[in-house]
Write a structure and sequence with these properties.
The protein has about 120 residues and is mainly alpha-helical. It has four helices and two strands, in the order ααβααβ. It has a two-stranded antiparallel ribbon.
Length: about 120
């Protein structure tokens, strides 16, 4: 079931989301200021490609992660999360869209504070 949902997700738009996160990670890697957020962008890209069967857990809750997450939240995280919540609300209207809506909620949570998080297989 997880494979089928991941394939549907990928075909119906997951490849766009993942590729854009890879592009964002590459752009962040080019700049010196963006280097702290580069691993988080690549982590979100992998999760955006194949989100079913994965969960998000805290890895590091130190002061550095907190500071980077606050900067991220103010500069980019809130509008990325808002985008995912709007998509989740639209998908949750149908029964078939509920699993995809849940993945957008998980992406919204991850895009709010990506530093210090990791994605694990369930």
């Amino acid at each position: 079931m997880r494979l089928l949902l991941n394939l549907l997700w990928f075909i119906l738009g997951g490849w766009i989301s993942g590729t854009l996160w890879l592009l964002a990670g590459a752009i962040l890697a080019i700049t010196i200021m963006g280097l702290p957020w580069t691993p988080a962008a690549f982590r979100i890209a992998g999760f955006s490609y194949w989100p079913f069967g994965k969960t998000i857990v805290d890895r590091d809750t130190g002061a550095t992660s907190l500071l980077l997450n606050i900067l991220w939240l103010v500069l980019a995280g809130w509008w990325l999360a808002l985008h995912h919540i709007v998509l989740a609300a639209g998908l949750a209207v149908t029964i078939i869209g509920i699993p995809f809506a849940w993945q957008h909620v998980k992406l919204a949570i991850l895009s709010l504070t990506p530093v210090g998080k990791t994605v694990l297989e369930t």
